[in-house]
Structure formats: C-alpha cells, structure tokens
Amino acid sequence: MEDNVLWEKHRLYLPEMRRRAIHRCRHCKFFVAIKGKEETRHGCIVHIKAYGRLKKRIPPVLPVMDIIKYVGLEGLGECLKHSNPEAQSCGEFKLKV
Predict the structure, then answer these.
(1) CB–CB of 84/26 below 8 Å?
(2) pLDDT tens digits for 12-69?
(3) Domain spans in the chain, listed from the N-terminal domain onward
(4) What are the backbone dihedrals phi and psi of residue 74, each rounded to the nearest 5 degrees, phi first?
C-alpha cells in the first residue's frame, strides 16, 4: 500500500487533531511578542509554567526580562526557537479570544 496514491490521500482526523491541523501558531494565545531592549520578536511561551498552566494572565507583549527571570537564557532560546507564525499549532494550542 506504500505506492497507492489513493490510499495515502484518505486521512481520518480525530476532532482534537483536526483543530490542531487547521490552526497556526499565530492563532494561539501562547504566541506573544517578546520585547527586548532594541527589538521585538515573537515566540511561544507555553513552556513557562506560570503561563503554560494559565496561572498568570498572558499579556500580548511580554518583556524579555520576565522570561529570563522565569526560565533563564536557555528558556528564552527555547521560546524564540518557536517563532514561526505559519507553523502548525502544537498540542498545547489555545485559541486567542
């Protein structure tokens, strides 16, 4: 069945997987602008426990010093690594309201 084109095009999406497949990172509430001293970049803050578990309100613009305070420079690099707004959303996706 590996060479069967018709078989490969028929996909079954579970409801939660369909939601993940049709949305992009720019639609997610965890995708925020990270404001540094000289420039602003976008990134995903879902790996920061305070924001990822929705214990704190997620602001539209987050100062870089807050991220460094919570997760350090390695965590900041992780947040900025996921900075593509057109990327497919992850399993932690929450729609912006």
Answers:
(1) no
(2) 666 666 666 778 899 999 999 999 999 999 999 999 998 989 999 999 999 999 999 9
(3) 5-82
(4) -65, -40
**Type of residue numbered 56:** K
| CA atoms in the 13 A half-sphere facing the CB of 40 | 8
Paired sense of beta strands 61-63 and 31-35, if any: parallel
CA-based R_g, the chain, Å: 17
Q: How many CA atoms lie within 13 A of 86 on its CB side?
A: 0
* Cα-based distances in Å from 84 to 8, 14, 41, 44: 28, 25, 10, 9
How many Å apart are CA 68 and CA 73, to the nearest integer?
A: 6
Angle at 73 between CA 68 and CA 79, to 5 degrees: 80
CA 34 to chain centre: 13
